[in-house]
Write a structure and sequence with these properties.
By secondary structure, the chain is α/β, with parallel strands linked by helices. Helices cover about 40% and strands about 15% of the residues. An eight-stranded mixed β-sheet has the order 1-2-4-3-5-6-7-8, with helices on both faces. Helix 3 (about 85-100) crosses helix 4 (about 115-125). The protein starts with 6 loop residues before the first helix and ends with a helix. About 45% of the residues are buried. The mean pLDDT is about 95. InterPro entries: AB_hydrolase_1, AB_hydrolase_fold, AB_hydrolase_sf. It comes from Mycolicibacter heraklionensis.
Length: about 290
């Protein structure tokens, strides 16, 4: 019988808190670990995701950082604004979160949509981003097939949040399709069954609309303005873009470092946390 993987067992023994903060009127859910006296690290999940994307990373990072994994605007248990969400909306919310916790600067690490938001934050608010990690980040291209796949899987999972539809959405993220990811599926299923989440997902899917996406995309001019030291993490089996796209992103950011994680899909921080935590911390703690 395959070993059962549990969000709770990932967090057992970790001194963490789950709670809510007021980010300029937006009730925002977070998982938090570490000492408030340490530098701030914000972890940003992907499209349609939630803070549990980082359950396997909180302990390692809490040794060195006041570590926050938040449900981004319109996601998880955070307030839903009721309008299509573009990158600027997420960046504004992130800045409001940093203000709410009293952090003038923070290191920002984002996966997928979270990476897109993190990059834009570093462009628009260079004084507030100490170090930047882009983990299988979105925002550099518009692939119609990938965009269609994200919409199809995501809307199916919220319109009929059965075990099968939600599991299909989760398995799409992962390189190893033999695992069932039961506890992550159950966590997400509960979120997708929240009242009003179908409308919330439509707002989240705005960035998969070609017109809306086009005005939010980042190119050489935008990436070239990033001044924070940057690590780009990519994987061998990312379903959204190949390794060359990850290298292209890194090439557009002055001085960026590129790291490839083999055997992972879109969630390397979850699929291979030991390697991810090592690479991540080596970069974040560099002097």
């Amino acid at each position: 019988m395959p070993e059962f993987e549990s969000v709770w067992s990932d967090l057992q023994g970790v001194a963490f808190e789950q709670g809510y903060l007021d980010a300029r009127g937006v009730r925002t859910r977070y998982l938090r670990a570490g000492d408030p006296g340490k530098p701030v690290l914000a972890l940003l999940h992907g499209s349609g995701g939630h803070a549990e994307a980082y359950v396997r990373n909180l302990a390692a990072h809490a040794e060195h950082f006041w570590t926050w994994s938040v449900d981004m605007l319109g996601h998880g248990y955070t307030d839903k604004p009721g309008h299509p969400l573009e990158v600027g909306h997420y960046v504004a919310h992130l800045m409001d979160v940093l203000d709410a916790i009293g952090a003038q600067t923070a290191s920002i690490s984002g996966e997928s949509l979270g990476g897109w938001v993190a990059a834009r934050a570093a462009i628009d608010h260079p004084d507030r981003v100490h170090r930047l990690v882009l983990n299988t980040a979105g925002g550099s291209q518009a692939d119609p097939e990938v965009m269609k796949r994200i919409i199809t899987l995501s809307m199916a999972a919220v319109e009929n949040p059965s075990w099968e539809t939600v599991q299909a959405r989760i398995k799409w993220l992962m390189a190893d399709k033999t695992k069932d990811y039961d506890d992550i599926v159950a966590s997400r299923q509960r979120i997708y069954r929240l009242p009003g989440f179908v409308d919330a997902m439509r707002d989240i899917m705005a960035l998969q609309d070609p017109q809306i996406r086009a005005r939010n995309l980042l190119g050489p001019a935008e990436y070239g303005r990033i001044t924070a030291p940057t690590l780009v993490v990519w994987t061998s089996d990312d379903p959204t873009a190949d390794v060359e796209e990850g290298k292209r992103i890194a090439s557009m950011i002055p001085g960026a470092r590129f790291e490839l994680m083999p055997g992972c899909g879109h969630w390397p921080q979850y699929e291979d946390p030991e390697t991810f935590n090592r690479l991540h911390l080596e970069f974040l703690l560099e002097r």
